[in-house]
Amino acid sequence: MPLNVQKINEGTVIDHIPAGAGSRVLQILSSSYPLSGMAALIMNAPSKKLGRKDIVKMEGVYVEEKTANRIALIAPKATMNIIKGGRVVDKHNVEMPHALSGILICPNPNCVTNFERAQTTFLEEGSLLRCRHCERAFKPDELA
Amino acid sequence: MQDLISIRDLSKKDVESFLSEAAKMEKLIGTPGSELLKGKVIANMFFEPSTRTNMSFQAATKRLGAKIMTFYPSTSSVAKGETLADTIRMIDGYADAMVLRHPMEGAARFAADLAKHPVINAGDGGNQHPTQTLIDLYTIKKIKGKISGLSVSLLGDLKHARAMRSLLYGLSMFGAKITLVAPEALRMDQDILQECKGKFGAKVSQTQEIRLSGCDVLYACRIQKERFSDKYEAEKMQKEFRIDLELLAGAPKNMAILHPLPKVDEIPAEVDSDPRAKYFEQAANGVPVRMAVLHRCIKG
Hints:
The complex is a heterodimer.
Chain A: E1 11-18, H1 22-32, E2 39-47, E3 51-59, H2 65-74, E4 79-84, E5 87-93, E6 99-101, E7 121-125, E8 128-131, E9 137-138, H3 140-143
Antiparallel strand pairs in A: 1-3, 1-4, 2-3, 4-5, 6-7, 7-8, 8-9
Chain B: H1 12-28, E1 41-46, H2 52-63, E2 67-71, H3 84-92, E3 97-102, H4 107-114, E4 119-124, H5 130-144, E5 151-155, H6 162-173, E6 177-181, H7 190-200, E7 203-207, E8 217-220, H8 231-240, H9 245-248, E9 256-258, H10 279-284, H11 286-299
């Protein structure tokens, strides 16, 4: 039996999130934007591309690049659908950036960035992201 | 002016240039021509204990004719809670270069971002020790005439020792054949191994048994007991990875034994007189290499 979730008129629908990662995407969104409108998390929906996927809908929120970059760490194939007036006005894939500055915390407890007022920077190295300070490399989902 | 923060920031050409500069410095020691940094002031800032790095930087500074300013964290405002950032900004106003050892990983990079003058990393936590790597490469080249193609075994606490992490990168850059000998719990982090294989196509094998047949250089380091919560476990590992005369009896006669020092139980004193033991010579090379580093970082 199909599951009906109300459409949103203004906001963002994030599609093609790997099944199980939707709650973390919602967590990132709610830490970046105050929840003023409706938010929905659809879990384990069938997907031609991924087999199973999660979808997040957030009303009244247009996701900025900084937040989209964080989402890309755990959902590298996610699609951002920007909804205005009930219609999709823009659709694009999130992209893993080459460098991420000032938005992540280094998981290395002995990294100087966890003690001093230092902006973290992570540099992309293949499938890993390396902290510019402590030089440890992490998998993207360890940083999200 | 430039900083020296990580061996990962240097190209092979940069490293070769430091090594040839160090050879020139070695010849200059004790001659009037060595006073290349006369009038300069260097700040030595050691937030962790050190004998060789601290003393050889002091010796290098004095051999170059510069003045040294020693910072003591326990009697400075650090003891009152002053941040590293404020300490760096302040000393940057007093000195022409800073030599920094700090327990936090990334401290030198952080300091270099704040300072106008060069910062030289003298060890940042378990991350990097670039000047030690230059000394190690200089020593190997001096003893063996080359680095490329040599069989080098790195033995001991490969997980916590910054000298080993830096050295693996340096040896990989020069195409040495590397064997990592460590107990399972003290193996080198995978990220640095993968990086060396990916960037340089490094030939690296890992084992838990010490096999010295065909080994050109045996590089040992101590088990870093201070980083263990279980001291008994640390002691046990130390005993398993001991290099004594019995073990050395089956090792090649021309093999060089290196160690960043301090050595504790892993190499007993009886080995010191073995002609293969080159670690004191290696420590002495700290002076010309650090002279080359100071000169390059300050004069460019």
